[in-house]
Design a protein that fits this description.
alpha/beta; 8 helices; Rossmann fold
């Protein structure tokens, strides 16, 4: 093995978007790769659902865990195996960013709890408010105190792992971001979604949302660009590059 080659940043693909969205916009890993803007380090996509082996966590520069239409509380074998691997990565202080399902899975992997949100779904462009702790956080510092972000979730991180720091929440969701250790973050919102993706999700979920009393048309009208939220992927990439000495 050539140990001199730079370690890859790994995108752990735990789900796919709707077929219609994928046909016109690509899938989660493509949206994440675009947001990372990674130039100096290779990207590696692994999909444990299809049997891909997760790499040695000591041989990766960073990890991004995607969202999924699955539920963490269902404890699928591929999900539990990924949770155990994430715990190893965090123990090595490998930078980790869990998105939506990945956020919940990170909490679960480290001893917290993920499950159904007691108030139901949060879908659309929402306002995320930073906690005071975010001012000193390596990933979130410098963001506006309140900013719009795209969200699609029925489950949440209901209880954070011991020692975790809550960083942000919304009116509906008290834990939209947290950090555990020095370099592992979960974000419930979707920094990889653009406005078209968010509108696409509202369109695909319109029937279900209407059955729960939401107004899909009103949700579509409230979709806006989310530059601050989207910047987290590039911010995370720069943290990874700096730690690898290639920034």
């Amino acid at each position: 093995m050539d140990t001199q080659r730079p370690h890859p940043l790994v995108i752990v693909k735990l789900g796919s978007t709707f077929d219609a969205l994928r046909a016109r916009q690509g899938d989660f890993e493509h949206w994440i790769a675009d947001g990372l803007g990674m130039q100096a380090l290779p990207l590696l996509v692994v999909d444990p659902r299809r049997g891909d082996a997760l790499p040695d966590p000591a041989l990766v520069s960073g990890v991004v865990v995607t969202g999924s239409h699955a539920m963490v509380s269902h404890r699928e074998p591929w999900s539990e195996a990924t949770a155990a691997w994430l715990a190893q990565a965090v123990a090595l202080d490998t930078p980790v960013l869990g998105i939506c399902y990945g956020h919940q899975l990170l909490a679960h992997a480290l001893g917290g709890e993920a499950g159904d949100h007691p108030l139901g779904a949060e879908v659309g462009t929402v306002t995320v408010a930073l906690d005071e702790a975010a001012a000193a956080d390596p990933l979130l510092n410098g963001l506006p105190a309140r900013f719009p972000a795209h969200a699609v979730h029925w489950q949440s991180a209901l209880r954070l792992p011991e020692g975790a720091v809550r960083l942000a929440g919304s009116e509906h969701e008290p834990i939209h971001a947290f950090r555990v250790g020095g370099h592992a973050w979960g974000v419930q919102f979707h920094p990889e979604f653009d406005a078209d993706a968010m509108r696409g999700y509202i369109e695909m979920l319109a029937g279900e949302l209407a059955s729960q009393g939401a107004d899909p048309a009103a949700l579509r009208e409230r979709v806006v660009d989310t530059d601050a939220a989207s910047s987290l992927l590039g911010r995370f990439a720069r943290i990874v590059e700096t730690r690898q000495g290639v920034a």
